[in-house]
Amino acid sequence: MKRQLVSASLAIAALAAGLTACSSSGSPSADGRGSSADPKSATGTVTVWLMDDAQKNWPDLVQRVNDEFAAKYPGVSLKLAYQGWADKVGKLDKALAAGNAPDVVELGNTETMKYVLSGALAAVDRTTFDNSDSWIKALANTCTYQDKLWCVPYYAGARVAVYNSATFQQATGSADFPRTESDLLAALDRIADRSKSDRTFSPLYLPGPYWYAAMSYVAAYGGSIARFDSSGNWHGTLHDPKSQQGISHFVDLVRKYNKGDLTVNEQNQFESMARGHAAAFYGNGFEAASVTAPVTGDPSLKDVVKVATMPGPDGKPLPTFIGGSDLAVTAKSAQPGPATDWIRMFTSAKSEQALADKDILPNNLTQLNPLKNKATTAAAANAVPDAWFTPLAPGWGAVEKQKIIPDMLAAILKGKSVDQATKDADAAIDQLINNAS
Description:
The protein is of the alpha+beta class. The chain has three domains: about 10-155 and about 320-385, D-Maltodextrin-Binding Protein, domain 2, CATH 3.40.190; about 160-200 and about 270-315, D-Maltodextrin-Binding Protein, domain 2 (3-Layer(aba) Sandwich); about 210-255 and about 400-435, no CATH class. Helix content is about 40%, strand content about 15%. It has helices at about 10-25, 50-55, 60-70, 90-100, 110-115, 135-140, 165-170, 180-195, 210-220, 240-255, 270-275, 285-290, 335-345, 350-355, 365-370, 380-385, 395-400, 405-415, 420-430; strands spanning about 45-50, 75-85, 105-110, 145, 150, 150-155, 160-165, 225-230, 235, 280-285, 305-310, 325-330. It has a five-stranded mixed beta sheet with strand order 2-1-3-12-6. The protein has a three-stranded antiparallel beta sheet with strand order 10-7-11. A hairpin with a 5-residue loop joins strand 8 (about 225-230) and strand 9. It starts with 9 loop residues before the first helix and ends in a 5-residue tail after the last helix.
């Protein structure tokens, strides 16, 4: 598979050349084939950075893989550190600059390009990983550059409607989530009427800075965040009429149905339902489990919290962002072979099935397909083929880091016109999106 990413400047070409230099160094190959050493005689330390999602949701998988690794590499110490999404990128950048980066790092799939283009990651051999011939294309694309694989898909994420079926039953006479947006809005209006005495109750909890949701509405109207033009540059397209339609639609929904603080993001939106303050929200399928979990939520809601396909404004399902994570070996790892082997174990068919059994979307279509017919995963699994993704541009990481789109949404909700806010956002995007640094 080849990702068609065309460099916007000679600087990008130079960086690409640097990647080749990194991958052709004299160190053992990252796929482990460059060394004939017996794993039993290997020594040293492999440091792994995983996001804390694994610690919270599948610690049993992590332990099993670590045990498997220890059996194969008894002389290699494994140092595992869990990271939070809020500060991981900053910590990784500092570690790379200081020369003490982890051997294995989990990257959100919108983060990978920055590290690929900077030469921070080591190339790996796709053919040595389970189910690589059926990896979800959008995930594999985030790891592929110049016909080389620079990271390994870990798991996918797709957003769905999470709703309290009892609340819908009481307000509409049906516990099913509406299939069209017009029916959904009618149901939300009925719920709003029944709950009007509670000013903290949101018929639809839709956070104002929730740019993944906002851009889903942009995609539904045929708009986009940015496009690659014939001159060889990316440019922002939020000011385009179709994009503006989607943004306006999103903002209207937020203003009408979210009764919470409009400046709060979606990171812990499941809490609104767990605390009895929301009838529905738009989130990852696994957030439904957080609503009913013993520690984070309310277990008494287990039989009423359900997931469904979120209808869009065009009579079709709302396009979802294809989220997820990748795993990579850093370019200067002193243990590329064992490090890659750990990733191989952690993304094996057995490991991916462990994720699927917990209703997490696996990295491949072979193991994803059965989830399309499972009640708790059908909506998310079926959304994957038509999902959208962020621009495959060299400076996208900087755009995201600067929070240009969330800030645009915040400005609109404070009263700035959609026309001016999108024009300003495009100007800010244009300053960053073509630069790899």
